[in-house]
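Field log, afternoon session.

UNIT: design team B
ACTIVITY: writing a sequence onto a fixed backbone
BACKBONE:
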């Protein structure tokens, strides 16, 4: 390592990005490009940093596998900050394998945590949990320990286990303080604040009230039959019937649950499920078909009885029926929950995280922009979308997708 490279590395370690640039900005050898990329990332020019990391990775030879792998990890971390999540994680996984084979434990841990955070953003919770488990028992420096505990808290919150989440956040707070990184400490406090924010609305025969995450956890533990309008499914204890891809059936379920212990009128069910105001016999026939499908799905937990005016949901074992509604109304609640993290998202990343098409996301964003709820930056391929802070816990609205093979 020559003296300029060593001096630039020391400057970056001290947070002096401009000092590092003075030493390497005019050089195009791979070590200088890598340090230049780190400096640009520290200064906030993330697209430029990605370009420099890619150039550095290509420049390192086969005998410099460790340096090349570190550049790949750095590029993946910047892509995470840019919310450019549509690329395959294969390169990051290969970099982890290379660093592990070379015995670079610290950078392996760093790379695994980048992967964990990516899986969390995409709702791939099983993958995030498995990757984080590979760090169990390993000694980590304070900064990486804080990130690992933040990830553990995020996973616990997504599983609605608030006590383990609080414990992980306490560990993260101590580690961030020890590391002396203000941004990391601020992130810990931001996640901790969600425990005290409204997370959902409980709708039952006794009325409606706002719940925090720990209160949602307690409600679900008491064994009620829950029409979960946050995650779009039917829940009873640990049993879960997902209906996100069957919106008509969920709309019928929610209407029946809101009417419980009474009955839901046929015309009201048609209006909720099919969004129609003028009802005729064909719609009533379709209602019977869709209710037949819903009846078969909920059979293990409840039955749906026909009445003179409509239909009634009758849970087994005389259980209470409740609706868990989002803290905000509207079909784009999950989209707003993703955007409210303060980062700029591309439509491709949003579509990937939501498990839907880019066209669907684009239509929703146009509607939200017209309503003043989101704003765009950049043009065409560089266009990104942001939303103001939500003011409520978005945990129940974030997507949770099946693990990918």
């Amino acid at each position: 390592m020559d003296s300029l490279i060593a001096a630039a590395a020391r400057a970056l370690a001290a947070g002096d990005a401009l000092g590092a640039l003075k030493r390497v900005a005019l050089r195009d050898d791979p070590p200088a490009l890598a340090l230049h990329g780190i400096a640009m990332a520290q200064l906030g020019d993330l697209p430029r940093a990605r370009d420099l990391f890619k150039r550095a990775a290509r420049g390192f030879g086969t005998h410099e596998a460790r340096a090349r792998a570190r550049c790949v990890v750095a590029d993946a971390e910047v892509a995470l900050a840019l919310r450019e999540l549509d690329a395959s994680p294969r390169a990051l996984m290969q970099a982890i394998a290379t660093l592990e084979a070379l015995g670079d434990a610290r950078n392996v841990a760093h790379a695994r945590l980048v992967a964990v955070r990516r899986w969390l953003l995409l709702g791939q919770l099983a993958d995030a949990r498995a990757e984080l488990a590979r760090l169990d028992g390993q000694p980590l420096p304070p900064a990486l320990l804080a990130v690992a505990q933040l990830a553990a808290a995020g996973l616990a919150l997504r599983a609605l286990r608030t006590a383990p989440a609080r414990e992980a956040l306490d560990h993260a707070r101590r580690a961030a303080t020890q590391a002396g990184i203000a941004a990391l400490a601020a992130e810990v406090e931001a996640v901790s604040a969600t425990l005290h924010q409204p997370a959902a609305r409980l709708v039952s025969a006794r009325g409606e009230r706002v719940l925090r995450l720990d209160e949602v956890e307690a409600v679900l533990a008491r064994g009620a039959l829950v029409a979960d309008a946050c995650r779009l499914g039917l829940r009873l204890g640990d049993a879960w019937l997902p209906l996100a891809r069957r919106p008509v059936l969920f709309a019928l379920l929610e209407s029946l649950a809101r009417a419980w212990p009474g009955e839901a009128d046929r015309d009201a069910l048609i209006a909720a499920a099919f969004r129609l105001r003028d009802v005729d016999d064909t719609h009533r026939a379709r209602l019977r078909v869709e209710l037949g499908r819903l009846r078969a799905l909920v059979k293990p937990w409840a039955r749906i009885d026909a009445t003179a005016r409509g239909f009634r949901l009758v849970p087994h074992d005389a259980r209470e029926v409740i609706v868990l509604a989002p803290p905000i109304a509207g079909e784009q609640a999950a989209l707003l929950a993703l955007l409210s993290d303060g980062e700029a998202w591309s439509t491709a990343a949003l579509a990937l995280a939501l498990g839907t098409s880019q066209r669907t996301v684009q239509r929703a964003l146009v509607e939200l922009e017209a309503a003043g709820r989101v704003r765009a930056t950049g043009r065409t391929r560089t266009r990104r979308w942001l939303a103001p802070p939500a003011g409520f816990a978005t945990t129940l609205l974030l997507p949770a997708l099946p693990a990918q093979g």
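LOG NOTE: The first strand starts at residue 200 and ends at 204.
NEXT ACTIVITY: expression trials, pending approval
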